[in-house]
Design a protein that fits this description.
The chain contains 15 helices and 16 strands. The protein has helices at about 15-35, 50-55, 60-65, 85-95, 140-155, 170-185, 190-195, 200-205, 210-215, 230-245, 285-290, 305-310, 330-345, 355-365, 375-380; strands spanning about 40, 45, 70, 75-80, 105-110, 125-135, 160-165, 250, 265-270, 275-285, 300-305, 320-325, 345-350, 370-375, 385-390, 395-400. It is elongated. The termini are far apart. Bound molecules: adenosine-5'-triphosphate and magnesium ion.
């Protein structure tokens, strides 16, 4: 029979890649707990409508990237492409708004998008996301951006934070019209996708990665010039707070993000080295209400864990490895010594191979062992072990105390 391969775009995480991944994820989780975020473990499957209604019918995700399917009863379900929609659904379902004036939640787990797989882009990837429900104050946006910046600084990844405001129900319609007007003049230079989507969702044209489209929108009107009083004030205060926190940010008037639910603040942390986005987020003040909850302003971000782990240069070294080698018929003693060393907090592997001491030490080298713990009959009788430093070759006798 043919050997099975994993499904295209679905990858196994292991070895060094997984070590980086875990390091990044642990660091972010610790940081989120310091900011007093509470974890929520969300299901991987939701009703398709949850995503359609929140992410937006005209977005790439909903139109072509969703793993949607019918269950045995014919109900439309989908594997989650992102976490915010589910978090909002849960927030409403469990009336979390009734518990606290504001709620700070984070989630972690696999997301699924039917995209063309390439370096750093998978069909199953992982995100950690954080959401704050119940605050419309730009203080919240600033604190989230600051958290994002702290994470990346601690990981040693140089980034610049790009920010923009994309307005609200009051100011965006007027901007939408002037943008549409502008786009109708440059239409012949746009890619086919943009020509198709510009009338339904003109802001998305600003986000298109096709060079011709980028060029065509260079002179496009900017949302920031059309913000209403409230949105302008919000944006100005956000910038003041970021400056107060010494966070280097760059205003990008064409940053819009690929999801429909955003209002006011949108932001991305862009790697200076590679120019790719590693963390992205924004405010979504209408989403809770649109999904059937009470009007609740909210803001959040999501971290792409694979992409972020790729950029981490080095992870802290693992604990040194001890390798217990039974030499002679002393397996019982070796088992006991290994157990004892682990109880002392050491990382220990017991040799499962038999053979000469030379063979065992060769094996130790292959396994990346730092200390060989040799236990023979003499050791057993005298309650000690022989500790050999594999780097220096130095050997000492260690008494076992009871
Ligand atoms: P892109 O423009 O790269 O497609 P996006 O706008 O679709 O990104 P978001 O929905 O904002 O991405 O998700 C946040 C983060 O999740 C991204 O910045 C990225 O790091 C990561 N991400 C998104 N899609 C994938 C994918 N298919 N594979 C791996 N990571 C991904
Ligand atoms: Mg995408």
């Amino acid at each position: 029979m043919d050997k099975f391969q994993s499904v295209r775009g679905f990858h196994d995480l292991m070895g060094d890649e997984l070590r980086r991944f875990r390091y990044v994820s642990e660091l972010i989780r610790e940081k989120l707990l310091l900011y007093n975020f509470e974890e929520i473990v969300l299901p991987v499957v939701e009703y398709l409508e949850v995503f359609q209604r929140s992410i937006g019918e005209t977005t790439d995700i909903v139109q072509k990237e969703m793993f949607a399917f019918q269950d045995r009863k014919g109900r439309w379900l989908a594997l989650r492409p992102e976490g915010t929609a589910g978090a909002v659904r849960a927030y409403i379902q469990h009336s979390l708004y009734a518990l606290k004036p504001y709620m700070k939640l984070f989630y972690e787990g696999p997301m699924f998008r039917y995209e063309r797989p390439q370096a750093g882009r998978y069909r199953q990837f992982h995100q950690i996301g954080a959401e704050v429900f119940g605050s419309k104050d730009p203080l919240t946006d600033a604190e989230l951006i600051s958290l994002v910046y702290e994470i990346l600084s601690e990981l040693g990844i140089p980034v610049v934070i790009e920010i923009n405001s994309i307005g609200c129900k009051i100011c965006r319609p007027a901007y939408r019209s002037v943008l549409l007007e502008y786009l109708s003049h440059v239409e012949r230079n746009l890619c086919e996708v943009c020509i198709d989507r510009k009338d339904r969702n003109p802001l998305r044209v600003l986000d298109c990665k096709v060079p011709a489209c980028k060029e065509a929108v260079k002179e496009a009107p900017k949302m920031v010039d059309y913000l209403c009083e409230e949105c302008r004030e919000h944006y100005t205060r956000l910038k003041e707070y970021l400056s107060a926190l010494s966070i280097p940010y760059r205003e990008n008037p064409y940053l819009v993000r690929g999801l429909d639910y955003y209002t006011k603040t949108v932001f991305e942390a862009v790697s200076e080295e590679l120019g790719i986005t590693v963390i992205a987020g924004g405010r979504y003040d209408y989403l809770v209400e649109e999904l059937g909850g009470p009007p609740t302003p909210a803001v959040g971000f999501a971290v792409g864990l694979e992409r972020l782990s790729m950029l981490v240069k080095e992870v802290p070294a693992q604990e040194p490895l001890y390798f217990v080698i039974p030499f002679g018929p002393v397996e019982d003693f070796a088992l006991w010594v290994a157990k004892r060393l682990r109880a002392e907090g050491k990382r220990v592997e017991l040799s499962y191979r038999k053979g000469s001491l030379k063979k065992q030490l060769e094996l130790a080298n292959r396994l990346g062992v730092r200390y060989a713990v040799i236990v023979g009959e003499e050791e057993k009788a005298g309650s000690f072990y022989t500790l050999k430093d594999m780097e220096t070759g130095e050997q000492v006798r260690v008494e076992i105390t009871f």
